[in-house]
Amino acid sequence: MKVTSIEFKNFRNLRDGVIIPCAGVNVIYGDNAQGKTNLIEALWLFCGGHSFRTSKDSEVIKWDTDFARLDLNFYGQERPQKASLIISAKKKLVSINGVEKKSSSSLIEKFCAVVFSPEHLNLIKRGPGERRRFIDSAICREKLQNAVALSKYNRMLIQRNALLKDIMKKPWLEDTLDIWDAQLARYGSVLIKKRLEYVRMLSERASDFHNGISKGSEKLQIKYISTENAESNDTQEEIEKKFSEKILQNRKNDIKLGVTLSGPHRDDIDILINEKSAKAFASQGQQRSAVLSMKLAEAAVLRERMGEEPVILLDDVLSELDQSRQDFLLNELKHCQVFITCCEQSNKEQLKEGKVFFVKDGTIN
Ligand SMILES: Nc1ncnc2c1ncn2[C@@H]1O[C@H](COP(=O)(O)OP(=O)(O)O)[C@@H](O)[C@H]1O
Ligand SMILES: [Mg+2]
Asked: By C-alpha distance, which of 288, 291, 346 is closest to 27?
């Protein structure tokens, strides 16, 4: 997948106009607050979801105007295609190859990219919720069925937790728990199985990337931590059985506390560098490299699933990386189209092959 041009109108601080990137590495260079991230955000919006910066679409509209428009030309599924987005205060209009679509989610099957921005460091720095969201959004992107299992599981969980609180006051309701527990185990096991499969694939690829970024000096591992003791070669039936047993085992405590103590909503992933927790022990640069490796691995898995190389969007990754790690990102990510922002003149000089755009006060040259 390659972007051949993107045109902006009233998009944040960017001056109306078109840019034509190259098929390889595109360096977006400029001082702070000039519009580099705005350009990355514009590209990301064509993946069909919300911005990685805000969930309010209308924030991208240039101040004092009433709509923003983006037009993308790209090469995907072995042909040239185009998409446009018109964002106004109340709605977002999407058209793909001249055909208007009801929702921007129809872009998911058309255009694909992965994005790294500094907020993604929370994947290591923050709590397990952030990591579960990362894995879940990847498996949902893969198959609608997984998104259905996730939403059913979450609904069952809310209802079961409400029932647990009722049981505190009306103990005779305990008998009705069995039905909920069976449903929870059913949908939960689909989710756990998919997550285990995804984490295994992600770990293999992320560890290869990390090996490249760190020039062989660090080993990255990603492991799924299952509160149900599920393992990656378990069948779904085995996982369902283990999960059911765990729910039963925890029932007394669940009732006492009014919450469900085990299940995929309590699972996590462990990110280890040289066998040690990256959250507790890794330096800023190591954490950044680890998240970056995970993002590049996400792209590799997407490529295998879609048969298409996603566009790689890297915002502010280069700071805090040493020269050889920067060199890997600028010069070793062959075969895919990359957009990478930076503030340092030295970074653009490090680029061996590609195109440099200079951004100043919203003007891209
Ligand atoms: N809706 C908007 N309309 C006009 N300007 C905006 C809008 N949203 C953000 N900006 C401006 O865009 C600039 C930031 O651009 P950004 O891409 O984040 O900079 P950087 O080059 O540091 O990545 C800021 O100066 C901000 O005031
Ligand atoms: Mg920025």
From this structure: 346
